[in-house]
Amino acid sequence: MAKSNGIVSALLDILLAVVRPGRTQESNPQRPRAHLRKETTTDAVVDPGRAAGTATMSIDPDGIRDLRLAYAPDRDGAPDAGEVIWTWVPYEENDGRGKDRPVLVIGRQSAERVYAVRMTSRAHDGDRDFLSIGSGAWDSQGRESWVDIEQLYSVHEQGLRREAAVLDRPRYGRVAQALSRRYGWSAAG
């Protein structure tokens, strides 16, 4: 049932993109700048990462073959590997619900999308799917954070709500190594 809900949600996104034409791309098609404001529709405000065509999507990491994990933060308004960003993230049930949360960008998927792993402040000591990365500026309460290395997302640059922080190179390297061991991806650190 959850899989069919995901298909329905994707079809709805496509339909809304056709019904509401007129959204323009940035002048540089190679690397459009992220829009940090909420997009509006006729009746409602849509959270970045949830809007048709720019929605954050859950992806099966086992289906990704040639991902190169290379540290490349650049505080330019666009998400880059090594940056912690905030976006709307769908729940695992993929039933249309979700929440705004921090994710760690790990690599580029295309000119408009990046791969990211979700973060949580809920303790996951001893859980092989989570890696502790300590605290940082992405959490105003200074809580310890964990990266979920089992859950991969595709985030559109226009789905970015805000850049929260840059993870330092050693911690990004630990995450990259864990992902490389698990999925066989190339980790440049």
UniProtKB/TrEMBL annotation:
Region (Disordered): 23-43
Record-level Gene Ontology MF annotations: DNA binding
Pfam families with a match to the protein in the record: PemK_toxin
Keywords, in A-Z order: Toxin-antitoxin system
Record's keyword annotation contains Zinc: no
Signal peptide positions (record): none
Family classification: Belongs to the PemK/MazF family.
Protein name: PemK domain-containing protein
